[in-house]
Design brief:
Elements: E1 4-6, H1 7-12, E2 23-29, E3 32-38, E4 54-55, E5 66-72, E6 75-80, H2 88-101
Parallel strand pairs: 1-3
Antiparallel strand pairs: 2-3, 4-5, 5-6
């Protein structure tokens, strides 16, 4: 099991309404699994450094949680940096939730030290 974070609530302070299109994306955060509840999945693409065309420089649009704006064919893809989504207090809460959901003896919090 993994704790689930409402992504829209985290970014904009508005909860995602439960619907058939809302999904949970399983992410690796500090060597632990974390679920991000999102409104909808439009597409799934695994990107490597050489596959995207160009990083779009838009300093005035870039927020802390945005790692990069990437142009992929005709689309703009936003790469999210999970380390910027949580302050220290929130990080502690998530680590506590990870400890609660992990099978006994399997949680490793050494990445957070």
């Amino acid at each position: 099991m993994a704790p689930i974070i409402d992504f829209r609530d985290k970014l904009f302070g508005e909860k995602i309404e439960d619907s058939p299109s809302s999904k949970v994306i399983l992410c690796n955060w500090q060597d632990n699994s974390l679920g991000l509840l999102i409104e909808e999945i439009v597409g799934i693409t695994e990107l490597t450094e050489t596959e995207y065309e160009v990083e779009i420089e838009r300093a005035n649009l870039k927020r802390g949680y945005v790692d990069k704006f990437l142009k992929l064919k005709d689309d703009i893809v936003i790469s999210i940096d999970l380390t910027y989504l949580f302050d220290n207090k929130q990080e502690d809460q998530i680590i506590d939730a990870l400890e609660e959901t992990a099978p006994e003896g399997t949680f490793d919090d050494s990445a957070g030290e």
